[in-house]
Design a protein that fits this description.
Number of strands: 17
CATH topology: Porin
Largest sheet: 16 strands, antiparallel, barrel
Radius of gyration: 22 Å
CATH superfamily: Porin
CATH architecture: Beta Barrel
Oligomer: single chain
Number of helices: 3
Shape: globular
Strand content: over 45%
Strand order of the largest sheet: 1-3-4-5-6-7-8-9-10-11-12-13-14-15-16-17
CATH class: Mainly Beta
Structural class: mainly beta
Order of helices and strands: HEEEEEEHHEEEEEEEEEEE
Number of domains: 1
């Protein structure tokens, strides 16, 4: 009887430990038919001719009690047109973090603070064909390897994330990357900033306001340190039931280059939508303008 009680106690302890940990498989499947200036109609499974990048990933969290959690995230890109994966399997994310009442500490390869600063107000949800991306590349870049970052707790809608790439991890060139984000009700605003040693800074100031029947967003951009120029963006979105319409414009005043986007989405469910998009990519310093027309479907799982 005593042996049975010990066995049952051990089983209960194991069950409790398991309940405190979780691993989730998630991802995106996205494919389109696209027409680009100078090319015939094609099937596309990669950026910038899809709404999102198809991918699969694993997220895991262990709740250690007292509000303290340890987490990991590994994420890989896949091309649904061919089945090919990226050369580095987990090039999209490979990191670990520790979080609690003090905030969150993260180490590894991850979307960087300046990217999250821009997406706080950007209208398309960081679509591959976003003109904020094509013109200014999310403050110059979207990911850092070997990043050490800290995110504060939320103070009345305000969060701050500080990121650092050490010189020894980046060919003796250090990097500072940060965002300051305010989200409260219909208003979202942010500062995104990053700088490599011995190069000019990159920064973006952006704001979005949701009026209910429509939403407006705009930004001031200076990413000359990343070779992307400086200028502004302005756009709006209108929800019409299951349909949402987006018009977005980006102007590089340094290189006299304008990009614009027209997009329509139709929600088939909470996780799946059909999209049609037209993106005009101004030539700037390139030889000619490029127009891209896409019709695709995206499923989040």
């Amino acid at each position: 009887m005593k042996i049975k009680f010990i066995a049952l106690s051990a089983l209960a302890a194991c069950s409790a430990a398991s309940a405190q940990s979780s691993v989730t498989l998630y991802g995106v499947a996205d494919i389109s038919l696209a027409k680009v200036t100078g090319s015939s109609v094609q099937m596309a499974g990669l950026a910038p001719l899809t709404n999102g990048t198809s991918r699969f990933g694993l997220r895991g969290t262990e709740d250690m009690g007292g509000g303290l959690k340890a987490s990991f995230n590994f994420e890989a890109e896949v091309n649904p047109e061919t089945g090919a994966t990226a050369t580095a399997t987990f090039a999209r994310a490979a990191n670990m973090s520790l979080s609690g009442g003090f905030g969150t500490l993260k180490m590894g390869r991850t979307l960087n603070p300046s990217f999250y600063g821009v997406t706080a107000w950007e209208l398309t949800g960081a679509a591959n064909y976003s003109v904020v991306s094509s013109q200014f590349s999310y403050a110059g870049s979207s990911r850092n390897s070997s990043e050490l970052s800290y995110t504060t707790p939320n103070f009345g809608g305000v969060t701050l994330t500080l990121g650092k790439v050490l010189k020894g991890d980046n060919s003796n060139v250090g990097k500072v990357d940060l965002n300051l984000i305010y989200r409260n009700g219909p208003l979202a605003a942010s500062l995104a900033y990053n700088k490599l040693d011995n190069t000019p800074k990159n920064y973006v100031l952006g704001v979005a306001y949701d009026f209910g029947s429509f939403k407006l967003a705009g930004s001031a951009q200076d990413v000359t340190g990343a070779g992307r120029g400086k200028g502004f963006t302005l756009g709006g979105t209108v929800p019409l039931g299951a349909v949402s319409l987006i018009v977005d414009f980006a102007r590089d005043t340094k290189n006299k280059d304008s990009d614009y986007l027209l997009e329509a989405r139709y929600a088939l469910s909470k996780r799946t939508f059909i999209y049609g998009a037209f993106q005009h990519n101004g030539k700037g310093k390139a030889a000619k303008d490029v127009d891209s027309t896409m019709l695709g479907i995206r499923h989040n799982f």
